[in-house]
Amino acid sequence: MPSLPDMATPDAAARAQEQAAGQTARPEDTAPEMRAALFEGLLRLGDNTLILGHRVSEWCGHAPVLEEDIALANTALDMIGQTQLWLGLAGEVEGQGRSADDLAYLRDVWDMRNLLLVERPNGDFGATLMRQFLFDAWHLPMLKALMRSSDQRIADIAEKASKEVSYHLERSTDLVVRLGDGTRESHARMQAALDDIWPYTGEMFIGDGHDAHLAEAGIMPTPESLRTEWDAYVDAVLREATLKRPEGDFAHKGGRQGTHTEHLGFILAEMQWLQRAYPGAKW
Amino acid sequence: MSTATRPSIDEVWDWLAQIPDPEIPVISLVDLGIIRDVQWQGDTLIVTVTPTYSGCPATSVINFEIERELRERGIESLELKRQLSPAWTTDWISAEGREKLRGYGIAPPVDGTAADGALQGRIDRLAGRSRLVVECPRCGSENTERVSQFGSTPCKASYRCKDCLEPFDYFKCI
């Protein structure tokens, strides 16, 4: 059987050629620093869903009940699909002929731009759901803002992804409430998970020079601008779940610039070994 | 293929309407509403396809099936175009497709109940005030409950009928 056509990855090689021929004006063609900022911004989006998608997929076959196993696998699948779109566009913007797969499988730890939050170990089922909830509550407003991006390619991907993420947020919210406001045991575990993950949430709202560049061009929102909505939603859900919002706003950070915790290397080792050991392998 | 002998657009749509969805073979790709456009550009046939879910593994199989079917019909120059926006919605599933789903044991989507991320909708669902009533595809009862928001594929949720006690899939609204 011939290999399946892959329409999810834009034709990065053709795009690079087109660029060399001097056709079309896109944001990345306007200035070198804009290309760099856009590439970084897209890696940040794609690496978040790549790493969290991989983390969640680790549950496959291990969840407490079959329905939750299937739900986790489907959530992971959505995120991996979104990764293909974001990293595909990142490769196109970079203009070096790298595909979504090249970016996912052939970059090392220091080149990854995901939030530290998404590389946190799964912990128990409750901790996985708590991490998902805190991420989803940021992810959806982020995508809603990206739907208004001045770059149509980004707005299109955000439109597609926001439909899927609406379901993710609905599900993680529901489970955080049910487990938080559940038994004494489930409540204690959810509060412990929240306390443990909390210092990793602040990074979602700390911008840098690339973010400022992109916001100025109307391409992506500043991270800071998403804080109010996240706070209001998370507070409302935690109240419903009878969980206590941790005090303090200390934030571990660096993931978005390539400084990661020790956990990411292990994820990449498992995720990338096949392409590293058998370069270009296909099925 | 010269302009004189190339098949008409209607004919191509008829062919596409015969390609089953790889995961729910009872409905066709046209019933599913994922074929957005068919047109000739010179001697090249351009078929525009939109994915259902961005990570759905059926997407590449679907493209493969479209290409195989059209090549078998004698189309030599073919281009498949991906369109992300407007994003696919279950509203595009044809009336016929919905009946076929029901007959197959899958409750068709209830339009207008997508989780669109709007705050009010989330609050309503949180408070159990969702207006979503899914009819059992087997006995027609409205006395059903959701078991999980996800099912055997990303596009489905798992339900249970509290009258006939059968579990069933619901093609969730997106």
List the keywords:
heterodimer, A: 283 residues, mainly alpha, Ferritin, 64% helix, B: 174 residues, alpha/beta, GMP Synthetase, Chain A, domain 3, 2 domains, three-stranded mixed sheet, 5 helices, 7 strands, 21% strand
Describe it.
The complex is a heterodimer of chains A (283) and B (174). Chain A has 283 residues and is mainly alpha-helical. Chain A contains 12 helices and no strands. Helices cover 64% and strands 0% of the residues of chain A. In chain A, α1 packs parallel to α4, α3 runs antiparallel to α4 and α7 (125-146) packs antiparallel against α8 (152-180). Mean pLDDT of chain A is 92; it is low at 1-5. Chain A has helices spanning 12-20, 27-30, 32-57, 66-94, 100-105, 116-119, 125-146, 152-180, 184-197, 209-216, 227-240, 263-277. Chain B has 174 residues and is of the alpha/beta class. Chain B has 2 domains: 9-82, GMP Synthetase, Chain A, domain 3, CATH 3.30.300.130; 90-171, no CATH class. In chain B, the strands form 2 sheets. In chain B, strands 4-7-6-5 form a 4-stranded mixed β-sheet. The A-B interface holds A 4-8, 67-68, 70-71, 74-75, 77-82, 84-85, 140, 144, 152, 155-157, 159-167, 169-171, 173-174, 177, 233, 237, 240 and B 49, 51, 53-57, 59-61, 63-64, 67, 80-82, 84-89, 114-117, 119, 122, 125-126, 147-154, 158, 172, 174.
